Amino acid sequence: MNESVWLPDSDLDASDREFALRIRAFAAEKLLPHARAIDEQRVFRREMVHELGAAGILGGPLPKSIGGGGWTPLQIAIAHEELGAVCGNARGFCAVQSGLVSQCLHQYGSKAQHTRWLTKLMRGEAIGCFALTEPEAGSDAASLSTRADRSGDGFQLHGTKHWITNGGVADVAIVFANLDLARGKDGITAFLVELTANGIRRSPMPGIELGHRGSDHAVLSFDGVQVPAESIVGGEGLGFSVAMGGLAAGRLSVAAGATGIHRAALAAAVAYTEQRRQFGKPINAFQMVQERLADMLTTLHASRGLVQRLARRRANGTETPSDVAMAKLFATEAAARAAEESMLLHGGNGYTSAHVPERLLRDIQALRIYEGTSLIQKSILARQLTQKN
Ligand SMILES: Cc1cc2nc3c(=O)[nH]c(=O)nc-3n(C[C@H](O)[C@H](O)[C@H](O)COP(=O)(O)OP(=O)(O)OC[C@H]3O[C@@H](n4cnc5c(N)ncnc54)[C@H](O)[C@@H]3O)c2cc1C
Prior knowledge:
Elements: H1 3-6, H2 14-41, H3 46-54, H4 73-86, H5 88-108, H6 111-123, E1 128-131, E2 147-151, E3 154-165, E4 172-178, E5 188-194, E6 200-204, E7 217-227, E8 232-233, H7 239-275, E9 277-278, E10 281-282, H8 287-316, H9 321-345, H10 356-367, H11 374-386
Parallel strand pairs: 1-4
Antiparallel strand pairs: 2-3, 3-7, 4-5, 5-8, 6-7, 9-10
Helix pairs in contact: 2-4, 4-5, 4-7, 4-8, 5-6, 5-7, 7-8, 7-9, 7-10, 8-9, 9-10, 9-11
The protein binds flavin-adenine dinucleotide (FAD).
Flavin-adenine dinucleotide (FAD) binds near residues 139, 163 and 379.
């Protein structure tokens, strides 16, 4: 086996390699033993939240000055690849808790909001969620219809969000609502809402999800929920920028997580095709099998290259929306193909949860959808090239 598939990319310097191995050891010890069971039993594991907090992973992306880990964007990508390779539920949880909620709150929130929530979120003592999507507003998030009506010194929220990761278990949510629907996206405002407030109803998403079955996905309804003016995050009418800022942070995690899924799919395929014998030989002696392994390896490194390029450009301030879109688009689509090929190379065994590709194949589909579908990433890239909306 070529160790570059399994070990962190050789482009990393010694301290980032050591960092990757530390996250890998955590994932092997704390996540791997539960990864299959939480998927099969469809349970959200609260202990996982405490473990991620205690290991400094939830606070990792936040600055050291406030008790975070001060991770570089490259380290965020490395960590999310490692988590994604082992447990999509844990990686998805971290992306929401630390990316969409804590980082967003740190960037746009007030001092009082920081004091009240950031330490708890970083330690895993509180759970956060990011409530943007609505039944009638998905890719077109600017068309959201949740209203924030002025009421006394504050606002009353009315509307429904769905597909909210952690929504059923969270203590606090960043909720996007419009102060004046006639103003379109210029009316959108972000509110930090404690989910114990009167008028909030939560219910699980209807149906059974294809993947991410150890995650919590909820419908949140707001029926005249009173929130104070101080709950605004980032300023009146600035919610759309807050949402897009949060999503840009989150898309790095999604792309890196996809690289982890890709790596796990390839690792499983390499191991299985070495030990499985047909026609008197290991099946990895057949050229058509080898071709698939070679393609999976090449696209893995191409994905990782785009993800780490995005991270490096984020660190030096040269990132563009196209860098984010290319990394997310390529890494998620390549990982979906790799998971499918890995399942095929496992033959009938690939079709059951007793072997890992089946879960990878289901989990990866969500990464092609959330935080902007693959088609939306393509439309961002095409807009850049053609200057047409
Ligand atoms: C597992 C999971 C977790 C999620 N977690 C969260 C969360 O925590 N918070 C949150 O707010 N949301 C969350 N979402 C919602 C997610 O962000 C949306 O599902 C996603 O943005 C797509 O929106 P939609 O489902 O309404 O699809 P639609 O927008 O209705 O899209 C349907 C299809 O039309 C295509 N399409 C739409 N517009 C265009 C266009 N202009 N050009 C080309 N194609 C287009 C899309 O690409 C897609 O293929 C989650 C979703 C999933 C599946």
